[in-house]
Amino acid sequence: MSPNDPFGRIYLTRGATSTRAVRQDENLSHSRPRLWCNAWKDKMANYIAAHFDDIEAVRCPCGFARRAFAVPENTTATVHIVDIQQDSKVHYHKKITEIYLILAGEGHMELDGELVPIRPFTTILIKPLCRHRAVGRLRLVNICIPPFDPADEWFD
């Protein structure tokens, strides 16, 4: 614990392929995204905080996603900001439940072959095994429970 930090705060820094915890007094590069949490005696605390501006977007079947809380220590949920592109692909998950909150744009969701119109503040709960995709240029929040796992993305 740093003498300047009696609470034992650590930062989780995300590298190209992994996330590691570093003490507050370590030299941190400002170019790397950071998640904040408190540690007490080297244990994870009861919270993690993130800012989407600090998270790099990655390509996904829907477009591009920024995934918060995607660290090995988190087994609860992840929260994503997703920018849907027109070429969104139908996919499903065997284990993950997703909750979508549409922030911007209009279009529709294809859910098990049915088309559901969507607009800002539409919410959708997508259960495991539901074939789905968003159609239109959209921005949404996606909450994945349990946390997103790229190995649980399936295509027919």
The spatial strand order of the largest sheet comes to 6-7-8-14-9-12
Mean pLDDT: 81
CATH class of the largest domain: Mainly Beta
Structural class: mainly beta
Radius of gyration: 18 Å
- The CATH architecture name of the largest domain reads Sandwich
Protein model, in words:
- Helix content is 0%, strand content 46%.
- With 156 residues, it is mainly beta.
- It has 2 domains: 9-50, no CATH class; 57-152, Jelly Rolls.
- A 6-stranded antiparallel β-sheet has the order 6-7-8-14-9-12, with no helix packed on it. Strands 1, 2, 3, 4 and 5 form a 5-stranded antiparallel β-sheet that branches. Strands 11-10-13 form a 3-stranded antiparallel β-sheet, with no helix packed on it.
Summarize this entry quickly:
With 156 residues, this protein is mainly β. The protein has strands spanning 9-14, 19-23, 34-40, 43-44, 49-50, 58-60, 63-68, 78-84, 97-104, 107-111, 114-118, 123-126, 132-135, 138-145. The protein has two domains: 9-50, no CATH class; 57-152, Jelly Rolls (Sandwich), CATH 2.60.120.
Short descriptors:
globular, 2 domains, Jelly Rolls, 156 residues, disordered N terminus, 6-stranded antiparallel β-sheet, mainly beta, 46% strand, 5-stranded antiparallel β-sheet
Q: Which helices and strands occur, and which strands form pairs?
A:
Layout: E1 9-14, E2 19-23, E3 34-40, E4 43-44, E5 49-50, E6 58-60, E7 63-68, E8 78-84, E9 97-104, E10 107-111, E11 114-118, E12 123-126, E13 132-135, E14 138-145
Antiparallel strand pairs: 1-2, 1-3, 3-4, 3-5, 6-7, 7-8, 8-14, 9-12, 9-14, 10-11, 10-13
